[in-house]
Amino acid sequence: MADLNILVTGAAGYIGGSVIAALLSENTQFPTKNLFAAVRTEEQVQSLQSLGVKALQLDLLNEQKVAEAVLQNEIDIVVHTAGSIDARLAAHLILALGKRREATGKDTYHIHSSVTTGYSKEGGWPYGTIKDGDPVYKMEKELNDGFPIRTTNTAVTELAKEQGVTNFIVGVPFVYGTGSGKWKKLSQNIPATVKASITLKAVYKFDQDSKFVAVHISDLAEFYVLMIKKILQGEKLPSGEEGYYFAVAHEVGWWDIAQSLAGALSARGLVTEPQARIWPSDDMAAEALDLPRQFVRLMHTARVTIDYNKRYPLGWEPKWDDQQKLLASMGEEVAATLQHDKGRTTLFDVLKTTN
């Protein structure tokens, strides 16, 4: 197995922190000397360094600082979990990896975290279900409609090709469960709904139900670890225009989630009834969930379907592989929100600034 240095961005976040924890759990294959974590604050640096990881306080918008970090620390693989909307963040990492490849003659790798919302009808995707082997890059490129997630995907793919960097796009679906990272433990939609429900004394759902794809955070972290293992083993994975992967374990319905949350919150006496109501208006939902009105319905009703013909990519074996496990865990989701809530998530902040 190759001895390559790995940088995880967003390492104090929900996904990035869980990826770091998953890598550390297999320290015989991923020694701490090879693990680097990009974070935003000195407090986060100190927290992650206590794990033995080299943490870097790094502004990904600063192209020069990113290049210095990649070159000085001899980074070969970047797992970018710090943002799927702003293409500049990934671009600076890819440019730095391109310089690293040029200086050493060694292959460099960029794993870009996207989101599956970009493949919903509500998000402007006209092609329906994505099937295993579909030319997703070509479909995004031909659509060329300016949707931020898809625009970033194509820009990242093209820049990586130009720089000679091996690039993979990981489509991240709805994520749930308690994270294993040192810093951020919570996902986005379910904790936001829990907090709004406690405030309003009732669980609300939209008047339109939606089935969408989902994954437990522990399974998602293992997906990234599996991809890194295959890179280190020298396996030639489809990359670039053919390098789109979807870490989808199962589908779930939002109405089912809302109803299960209503039961869990009612059992704790945190809402007045064990039934979910319909939001009276999108305005009320946006205010309660602390989201821009233009995104609030999309984030709760967008239908995304990914068909892998009953096979998971890369030989991945998610343990949370059906919606019943998720629905049965709503009590745990409530408890985790009450224990770990630290305010609005980074994604919500980004959405606020794009409104």
What would you note in describing this structure?
The protein has about 350 residues and is of the alpha/beta class. The protein folds into two domains: about 5-175 and about 215-245, Rossmann fold (3-Layer(aba) Sandwich), CATH 3.40.50.720; about 175-210 and about 250-355, no CATH class. The protein has helices at about 15-25, 40-50, 65-70, 85-105, 135-145, 150-165, 190-200, 215-230, 255-265, 280-290, 295, 300, 325-330, 330-340, 345-355; strands at about 5-10, 35-40, 55, 75-80, 110-115, 130, 165-170, 175, 205, 210-215, 245, 250-255, 275-280, 305. The protein has a seven-stranded parallel sheet, sandwiched between helices. It is globular. The model is unreliable at about 345-355 (pLDDT under 50). GO terms for molecular function: aldehyde dehydrogenase (NAD+) activity. InterPro entries: Epimerase_deHydtase (IPR001509), NAD(P)-bd_dom_sf (IPR036291), NAD(P)-dependent_oxidoreduct (IPR051783). It comes from Xylaria grammica. It holds the Pfam family Epimerase.
Poorly predicted sequence stretches spanning 5 or more consecutive residues = 345-355
Give the topology string: H per helix, E per strand.
Answer: EHEHEHEHEEHHEEHEEHEEHEHHHEHHH
Domains (count): 2
Mean pLDDT: 93
Which CATH C-level class of the largest domain is it? Answer: Alpha Beta
- Helicity, as a percent range: 40-55%
CATH homology-level superfamily of the largest domain: NAD(P)-binding Rossmann-like Domain
**Relative strand content:** 15-25%
Gyration radius, rounded: 20 Å
Strand order of the largest sheet: 3-2-1-4-5-7-11
Q: Predict the CATH topology of the largest domain.
A: Rossmann fold
Number of extended strands? 14
Number of helices: 15
Ends: how far apart? 46 Å
Structural class: alpha/beta
